[in-house]
Automatic annotation (TrEMBL):
It comes from the Bacteria. PROSITE patterns: PROKAR_LIPOPROTEIN. This is Lipocalin-like domain-containing protein.
Length: 158
């Protein structure tokens, strides 16, 4: 009986060491510090990445350790020619790791926006941020893209 007990004990220890919950990332404010860029975008109608790439040359956000941020939407020449200027939004941010949320505080055009995104990390360098369409369109200078439902922004650390 003893020779069988050792392999079972080793198997049990190996299984205990494979607990995936210990490997989850903590999405606190420090996690976001750095430069991020948009790599994918989808809404309730499906993947909109290819379409948005015709409207945006780049969408980047820099999160600073002092909890300030700057978001820059660099629109394509086509969008600029139609009268939409590039957009820069600045403000502060707060991340609540337990709730998996990222909140921005933006002073824009005499009003204050306070969008909150649901945050999910797929790795240390990739995050998806989900919010209602109206919030995303407001952050993009009220550009009428026609998003439907919730918008999922895939961002990657640069």
């Amino acid at each position: 009986m003893r020779p069988r007990l050792l392999p079972l004990l080793l198997l049990a220890l190996a299984a205990a060491g494979c607990d995936s919950t210990g490997d989850e990332l903590t999405l606190d404010a420090d996690f976001y510090v750095g430069s991020w860029t948009l790599v994918s975008i989808a809404d309730d109608s499906g993947d909109r990445t290819a379409e948005i790439q015709t409207l945006l040359d780049d969408l980047a956000v820099d999160f600073e350790s002092d909890r300030s941020f700057q978001l820059i939407a660099d629109f394509s020449a086509l969008v600029n020619a139609a009268g939409q200027a590039d957009v820069t939004q600045t403000g502060t941010y707060q991340a609540v790791a337990a709730a998996k949320t990222l909140s921005l505080l933006v002073a824009a055009g005499g009003t204050t926006l306070a969008p909150t995104f649901r945050a999910d990390a797929t790795s240390e360098d990739r995050v998806t941020l989900t919010a209602p369409a109206v919030i995303v369109e407001q952050l993009l200078g009220n550009l009428q893209i026609g998003f439907e439902g919730d918008v999922v922004l895939g961002i990657a650390r640069q």
